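Final report, Chapter 2: Outcomes

The project's central promise was a pipeline that accepts a single protein chain and returns its three-dimensional structure in a standardized token representation, suitable for archiving and comparison. That pipeline is now operational. To close this chapter, we reproduce one record exactly as it appears in the project archive, with the input sequence first and the structure output second.
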Amino acid sequence: MKNNVRTLKQAALLCLLIFASAQVNGQTATKPEGNGTQTNPYKIETLENLQWLSEVDSARYRHFIQTKNIDASPTKKWDGGKGFETIGTFLGTYNGKGHTIDSLYINRPAGDGLGLFRKIDDDTARVDSLGLTNIDFTGKRLVGGLTYSIGFGTVSNCYTTGKINVKEDGGGGIAKNNAFANLRNSYSRVSVTIGSYGAGGLITDNYGSTKTSYSTGEVKGDSLIGGLIGRKDPGYTADSCFWDIETSGIDSSVGGTGLTTEEMTNDTTYLNNGWDFVCEDANGTEDTWARVDNMNDGYPFLAWQWEGPVPVKNKLPDITGEDSVVVSTSPKAFNICGDSITGSTEDLLKYTEVGTYTITWTYEDAEGNTTTQKQTVVVEEGEETAISNLEEANISIYPNPAKNLLNINPKDNKIQLLTISDMTGKTRVEKTNIENHRTINLSQLNSGIYIIRIETKEGRFSSKLVKK
């Protein structure tokens, strides 16, 4: 009996510890769908799936694809504020499938070898088509945005944004080091701050093959820092790679070419160095890169990031007019080639009543991708000739206040247009071409105050009308 009680107590304690751990982490690891083979890879679609990968060592030589964008902002509250536990040495393949992991948080000031992955380290290991956005990583030594080290394998078509803070040495926007691997067609816009030495906007140490990549992030440290690469082994180069000397604050690197922001946001820079862009075939047909002025601050982006046309103006200006507005100009957007697309709408483009309206513009590219943008139209009451007694305009309106009938007598001044509007600006009565005495039926109007407007060849006139 005592043994049973002891067993029950131990089970209860274990459940309590598991519950407490879940409360600390704020998430429960969930095994993803799939079995990890090439034909049926594990499908990472939630933050819980990603946590499972960080906990299950035996899965890290398997195959993965990411099927959705992941919001990782809850990791800021995990593990008592320490954040995400870095995925250990990765020997498999991870295809982001053009998805992102946003706001991943790691805060381990005493930790070494930090990143989404600790290390990518097998000849057949591969990470591609993945974006890490708004990362916030803090460690003691050896920290990279994607991984601390690309030992062996390939990283391609990936990018990182956010910030990295290393208390001592070794930090890079994509990785701390590229050992004997291939890093290509990737970029970092991560700011890297190092407490002592060894930092690079893209990587710190380059002993492998780094090609057609760039960085723009600010880099700070005491020594061995570079806008693109902090240090390298002789004989290894960064082919057709660039960094922004203005945004990085660094005008030197042991690899790559430093350029101004203007040069970094110019297609020619990259086309002349063999980068394979969409809408050109001279540098290849894989269509890896694209560049549009209003996307990614004008820097090149990976073609898989394209979601649809990018408006030329981030916010369309309000269109304001008196009495009426006719919208005669359609706004523009860029397609992925940087060509102009004209917006279309099913909304009205002529407004004749006082009020505020919204036009929804739609831009569609040749592939059927669409983007929408709103524009506000404001019709204000115009400044009209103020005549307290319309007889000064040789026009008689009586009686006022009126009950059901209103008499209009233009005398010798033909009325081209007469409208009676309520106080919201909505036209309730409209008459045209009044040359002789006319009686207007007001029985459909509620009691209240209205504005009567009259247009003649002499001008426009208005007056209040009281309906009994």
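Archive annotation: The first strand starts at residue 42 and ends at 44.
This record, like all others produced under the grant, will remain available to the consortium after the project formally closes.
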